[in-house]
Amino acid sequence: MRPGLLGTEIVRVENALGRVIAEGIESTLDVPCFVRPWVDGYSTKAEWTRRASATRPVTLRLAGRLFPEDYPKSTKLGNGEAFYVACGAPLPDGADCVIKAEDARMVGSRVQILKGAKPGQGLSRAGEDIRRGSLALKKGQVIRAQDLGLILALGKREVSVIRKPKLAILSVGDEIVDLDHFDPHRIVNNYAYVISAAASEAGAIPILLGIAPDDPESIAAKLTEGLHLADAVATIGGCSVGAKDFVPDAIAKLGEVIAHGVRIKPGHVAGVGVAGGKPIFMLPGHISSCMMAFYVFVAPTLARLAGVTPGKMLPSIGAKSSVTIEKATTYTFLRLSLKERSGGLLAEPVHGGTNILSSLSRANGFALVPPRRSIRKGQQISVTLFGRLEHASFN
Amino acid sequence: MRPGLLGTEIVRVENALGRVIAEGIESTLDVPCFVRPWVDGYSTKAEWTRRASATRPVTLRLAGRLFPEDYPKSTKLGNGEAFYVACGAPLPDGADCVIKAEDARMVGSRVQILKGAKPGQGLSRAGEDIRRGSLALKKGQVIRAQDLGLILALGKREVSVIRKPKLAILSVGDEIVDLDHFDPHRIVNNYAYVISAAASEAGAIPILLGIAPDDPESIAAKLTEGLHLADAVATIGGCSVGAKDFVPDAIAKLGEVIAHGVRIKPGHVAGVGVAGGKPIFMLPGHISSCMMAFYVFVAPTLARLAGVTPGKMLPSIGAKSSVTIEKATTYTFLRLSLKERSGGLLAEPVHGGTNILSSLSRANGFALVPPRRSIRKGQQISVTLFGRLEHASFN
After folding, report:
1. Which one of B17, B84, B102 has the shortest CB-CB distance to A243?
2. Could you report the predicted ipTM of this complex, rounded to two decimals?
3. In this complex, do B312 and A391 lie within 8 Å of one another by their Cβ atoms?
4. What predicted TM-score, i.e. pTM, was given to this entire model?
5. Fewer CB within 10 Å, N side or C side of chain A?
């Protein structure tokens, strides 16, 4: 099973922040579309001002004032004249430079130029910002504030973006109660909200399917709903080797279990299946294992669906390991807390059982350490952050 | 003028992603609230299993099966017995450990323990995750996915957060046309959308006030509207030294211009005023200058209003300068493009006039270099990213 790109949709440019561009955007015009002053000042012919200085100013007759809204007014520069032009105004015929207002002085109806100018000075060439026919923004680019402005500068009101991937999330277990039935002696369905928020942070739309009891038929019914509503499904719990772990059976009813059991700690009971051409991820019921499986399997899949290079979906940052990590026989999902120190960030492993949610609240991201690889104290490692908000929680 | 903290509001926990916690959250309960198996397996008394091994298993009678939903069922462990317990199930009286299912084997109604256990093994202590009375989350913390789960684990459905700051944005200039009247010969109001999106990325709510003509009365009327609707106002354009730069005059009508002209390049015509106790920021009309003033003056103010340390509102990242930057007499707002290279990120200055929007599309963030400070090629510098989406655009 190979998730392909999702389809595209058209959105208003002002609503496109964070969306992924579906088709490269070529400019159909030059920006600016004509030679344009980019400072406020005096437009004239540069050669007349060549010898000007503060002590020996060159005096020109002020022939008029031009503002951007005067376009397309056509004016002609007479001999020994200058026009005041505001930034963006039309340039008089014959003028070839703009001298900044600070480098000139008005004396009655004349202007003294205090500094010699060169041809082209103070002017934007047509197409200097964006040339007609050039690729202004690339396919696959995530639209940022400045890109949004660029698209608007091309006169576009809408942009074709890749549809956001939808992830359906199902909690499994007789013991789990929904938020409205909170009971400290039961297990509240909070992990679904953690995965839901993490999916939003990774650019997806989460859909909460609620809770299925430990029964293959009920789980299969919910999975069917999820496959109908979403591009991928993630189950939480019910995939261990206990007496009531029925998620793999439920997947087998609808499609195929591709892998169950991975060489990663924590989270070795994670797995993945497929039904109706869509992936179903089995996330373990312990929170650290659950997050491991989300970040190692689900998030990269969501990125691919969204047309984004998986490594670019979430921020990653370089940091020095605060301790030596001994080599292991499996992959290790290292939960890391980042601390700002002079000389850079320090990555400190967070301890606590895999079921300790507060340990993840102390962490900012992770590294996936391959088998038989050790990390020296002080070694520079790349830490993938859990989300786009983590930088605010570095210590 | 010193912007204070904004007020607070109550939001549902599931809608609190990215919000700032207004009051530290103390736990009113132990999580878990009782001693709880955290693996699926066999609960018994550890001392009976002490000598167990795969070759010499210890055989116990299986007295029953317990699941989390059986709570608060009370069961008693008899001599030589074990109970199957699922993760989270109530523990039988007298049991002091749980042996993982993998380390045991069922033989008829008996269970063979293949590995000796220690007291406490496989069990979570009450309060092991969060202790009653402890501070689960701090005031000022930005709520991430895992924090959201933690708040729900405490049985809370709502959380008190600091209100998002509102920034009203006003474009100024006779030459500017709104998006619906795009004309390549005019200047479209796209910078307002850049600042609007940048404000969203910095955690604020942008309010677009539209366009004011170059007339102090009209500008003042729009500013009054902005001051009524928002916590701060940003104007774009109309603050230079040209013939029609009336924003400072308009501010002076309503309150006071505190500073106009800053020692930063680009953007030296930026300024700040205050009216009705609220800040008004004058952003220059050239896009690089405008973004300088937004990131150097507006974004830190929005952070303070939101109760977040200014340096934490936007991500910053360490990178090596690709070139030597000579010292200058003013502060320099250095637009930087980040490139991923082996050995870390490379920060490359982006060139182009201050009015070249596409140059900002090539950049990812900035450094503010103090006067008389030079940067050596290869020197490690801290780059503040323009937003939370920039990591996807590193080259």
Report:
1. B84
2. 0.92
3. yes
4. 0.93
5. C
Closest residue, chain A, to B363 (C-alpha): A146
What does each of the 395 residues of chain B score in pLDDT, given as a tens digit? 445 579 999 999 999 999 999 999 999 999 998 898 988 899 999 999 999 999 999 999 999 999 888 877 889 999 999 999 988 888 999 999 999 988 999 999 999 999 999 999 999 899 999 999 999 999 999 999 999 999 999 999 999 999 999 999 999 999 899 999 999 888 899 999 999 999 999 999 999 999 999 999 999 999 999 999 999 999 999 998 777 889 999 999 999 999 999 999 999 999 999 999 999 999 999 999 999 999 999 999 999 999 999 888 899 999 999 999 999 999 999 999 999 998 889 999 998 888 899 999 999 999 999 999 999 999 999 999 999 999 999 98
* Intra-chain end-to-end CA distance of chain B, in Å: 41
Strand partners, B275: B278
Query: DSSP letters of B279-324?
Result: EEEEE-SSHHHHHHHIIIIIHHHHHHHHTS-HHHHS-EEEEEESS-
| Disruptive mutation site among B309, B361, B381 for chain A (greatest number of A CBs within 10 Å) | B361
Residue appearing with tokens 């790109």: A5
Distance CA A86, CA B128 (A): 68
3 state SS for B315-343: CEEEEEECCCECCCCCEEEEEEEEEEECC
* Structural domains of chain B, with CATH: 8-31+132-162 (3.90.105.10), 36-124 (2.170.190.11), 166-312 (3.40.980.10), 315-393 (2.40.340.10)
Contacts of B184 in chain A (CB under 8 A): 29-33, 155
Interface probe for A, chosen from B17, B144, B147, B156 (most Cβ of A below 10 Å), is B144
**How far away is chain A from the Cα of B171, in angstroms, using its nearest Cα?**
14
Candidates A148, A191, A286; nearest CB to B193: A148
